[in-house]
Amino acid sequence: MFKPKRIQLLDEPAVVKAALQALPQPSRRLFLQRGLSLGGLALLTGCTLTDEDSAEQALMRVSRFNDKVQAWLFDPNKLAPTYPESMITRPFPFNAYYGIEDVPKVDGSRYVLELSGMIADKRPWTLEQLHRLPQVSQVTRHICVEGWSAIGKWGGVPFATFLKRIGADLTAKYVGFKCADDYYTSIDMPTALHPQTQLTLTYDGQTLPAQYGYPMKLRIPTKLGYKNPKHITAIYVTNVYPGGYWEDQGYNWFGGS
Amino acid sequence: MSRAPVIHPLWLRMTHWINALAVLVMVTSGWKIYNASPIFHFSFPDGITFGGWLGGALLWHFFAMWVLIGNGLIYLGLNLASGRLKRKFFPISPRAVLTETLAAIKGKLSHANLSNYNQPQKLAYLFIIVDTLLLVLSGLAVWKSVQFPLLRELMGGYDNARIVHFAAMSALVAVVTIHVVMVALVPRTLLLMIRGR
Fold first, then answer.
1. Contacts with A256 from chain B: Cβ below 8 Å
2. Which CATH superfamily is domain B10-195 in?
């Protein structure tokens, strides 16, 4: 078995990220524009924007606290329920922050998965190399933050196998993802190592279709849909909180179910 | 000058109003969350929902839940420890609830002595306690369907837990509406819940 090297290298993207976090964040403006919103409350009380700001901060603090509660509740050995193939939802719903006509067209033959951060072997992976790793499949329930759920069948490489293979520092706090559709998100290491967390290459026995994340997505049946990034082009391991597309706008970061 | 005895102790009045605020935030933010993916063929009018958008409503919902749970535990704890629960809510009998409800509808139920709950009141308030418990449990099943498998199965699976959560909310809103109408009909009870006497 490959033993991950203890690496304490200067993680450049992480350092830049930490520096940026110390500055006023553009995403916070977006947050306000979306209207959290205390509009009604402000009308009633004549509150100023400052009060709205501090209410927002209080809500975000509680959300960070809820991350900790969920990390504490998370049982690495507890499996999400699996279902017979007859229960698969057909057609499986498409969902993204854009319409289906804007699904990115990724050329699989030129695709490379880039690795960075606290990883011993940062050589990029081709799609063919990923397909050569031992494959598993599972039928699980995808739960969306909006409330709906759908059952699907995903096949690919257990993510823990992949992380060990590349020599990721398994004591690091976060695994982050960058995607071909400009989506980005990050997860906690215990969930990354959960036996059902999967680097997904197929859907329902077929090559992963474009609308479900071609060429590769991460499938996490213990987390909500927005924590399951599609069209992944880069994976990094870090101790600096990386946030996420929806998370930076107010969705709970842990997003566990 | 002797003052009237305190009927509602301070802790009861405080937990009542904190609970009222927590429930208001939970219910109206819950409607916004429901609207993101309605279970039935209707949505709640945007104007009566709270949180601005789904992300904001979720932040409020998962903030107010701690207020609801913490405050609820203090309410139940003090009610049990002080013997108030037993003294105020029991005995309760179906027959007495029925006769007193009929009397209330005919306008013949006396409200001279507000230190005791009448039978329909006992039923309504006990129902609110049990229903709130069901709301918390079904909410936990929706939030943590993988981590709480027993709760999930008791609710009939993830999708059904949403329906249970919705039904329990509807029942709570219905009973609270009656409660507010009753307070409007006997306004002294509102003063009682503010001043205690």
1. 144, 146-147
2. Transmembrane di-heme cytochromes, Chain C (1.20.950.20)
- Show the domain range for A108: 81-249
- CB A58 to CB B63 under 8 A? yes
This prediction has a pTM of 0.89
Report the pLDDT value the prediction gives residue B3, as an integer from 0 to 100: 76
- HSE at residue A94, side-chain half, CA atoms within 13 A, is 14
What phi, psi does A82 have (nearest 5°)? Answer: -110, 160
Query: Alpha-carbon distance A253 to A67, whole Å?
Result: 7
Q: Looking at beta carbons, which residues of chain B come within 8 Å of A249?
A: 55
Phi, psi of B3 (to 5 degrees): -100, 155
Peptide bond into A26 cis (omega under 30): no
Judgement on whether residues A117 and A238 belong to the same structural domain of the protein: yes
- The mean pLDDT value for B181-190 works out to 95
ipTM surpassing 0.85: yes
Is residue B4 very low, low, confident or very high in pLDDT (cuts 50, 70, 90)? confident
Residue B66 to residue A62, Cβ atoms within 8 A: yes
Q: Tell me the pLDDT tens digit for each residue of A42-84.
A: 555 555 556 778 999 999 999 999 999 999 999 999 999 999 9
